[in-house]
Design brief:
With 226 residues, the protein is of the alpha/beta class. The chain has 6 helices and 10 strands, in the order E-E-E-H-E-E-H-E-H-H-H-E-H-E-E-E. A hairpin with a 2-residue loop joins strand 9 and strand 10. Helix 3 crosses helix 4. The protein is globular and about 50 Å long.
Amino acid sequence: MSEFTLILENIHKSYKTPVETIRVLKGTNLKVAKGEKVIITGPSGSGKSTLLHIAGLLDTPDEGFVYLNGQKVEKNSDAELSELRAKHIGFVFQFHHLLPDFSILDNVALPLIIRGEKPKNARKRALEVLEKLNIINIHYKRPSEVSGGEQQRTAIARAIIGNPDLLLLDEPTGNLDRQNTIELMEILKRLNEELGITIVMVTHNLNLISYFKNHYTLSDGALIKG
């Protein structure tokens, strides 16, 4: 069993436009040990989201390799990648992507239902996770009926309901006020300490660095240890 949840090895990624090829990642390397909590900062457009999408198997590098729990992810089919994501990775984005016509409870339960769990069992587990995040009282409401902070907690609940090894967060505080941002950081601290979830968060908000033990800056396509 590997001591690292995530390894990115010599990752290159470019995008072609009608007029040029933009090199976003230029031999990026990262090792994240099990139970580690990492923050990656950098300005908008520096490639943070691209890096996170590659780490989360939502995108593929032009060169380089991704290792998840010590296993190289290489030449997997879309179905195999979907299974790896479902079993091992949770995602939280700035825009929560909650389903507007579903209740908070069903939004959280959905990943388990998709994996084949009986809806009754999935909803029972969803209630447990909502309670852990102190939002069980809104389980019957729809996303439009709750606050931005509650929507973000719902997104985290959905991301962790399958007990992932790795939680990836892309600008999760971008739409939150200061108080909700602090509360979110405390939630991540608890998830990391109590459940042992490895956390990687990307953000342009330098004020959040103090909440993390390990800090990297993405600059000119490479990660620099902070």
